[in-house]
Amino acid sequence: MKQIASMTIIVLMFLTACGQQSGNSAKQKKYPVTKTDTEWKKLLSPAAYQIMVERGTETPYHNAYYNNHEKGIYVSAATGEPLFSSDDKYDSGTGWPSFTKPINSTAIEVVSDNSLGMSRDEIVEAKTGLHLGHVFDDGPKDKGGLRYCMNSGAFKFIKK
């Protein structure tokens, strides 16, 4: 009985320790623009907060910009920084806005995301470290082969 109790305690300690580890290297880095969760909640919409700060994702096909075909730029909902252009947007068939490249590669950062039992390349805003989406290598080959799969809630759209 003592062996079972000891093993149970060891297993629980292991699971608890694993649950406390961050699956995202962006959370460990210091960024130029930092705010408390309370400050982000005041600045961002509830959807933007859930996506950007809590590193969530929105429902495919039920978001503001996956089917947006207007000309303009997509700026950060947190800072207003220009991130993506409609000139580089395409229909990936995934239900999220997809782009072949950012406006300026220094405005975003690629970080390792090992959450949810998988390894992916996460895209965060370079100034804040806030979550925008992920990048995959299954984009249009004639445009570099990358698919920046972003969350509409992380953006504000500015028409040309």
TrEMBL record:
Domain of life of the organism encoding this protein: Bacteria
GO process annotations (BP): protein repair; response to oxidative stress
EC number per UniProt: 1.8.4.12
Keywords: Oxidoreductase
Annotated Pfam families: SelR
Domain MsrB intervals: 37-160
Enzyme class: oxidoreductase
Catalytic activity reported: L-methionyl-[protein] + [thioredoxin]-disulfide + H2O = L-methionyl-(R)-S-oxide-[protein] + [thioredoxin]-dithiol
GO CC term, one of those recorded: cytoplasm
One MF annotation (Gene Ontology) recorded for this entry: peptide-methionine (R)-S-oxide reductase activity
Keyword Metal-binding attached: no
Protein name per UniProt: peptide-methionine (R)-S-oxide reductase
Lineage: Bacteria, Pseudomonadati, Bacteroidota, Sphingobacteriia, Sphingobacteriales
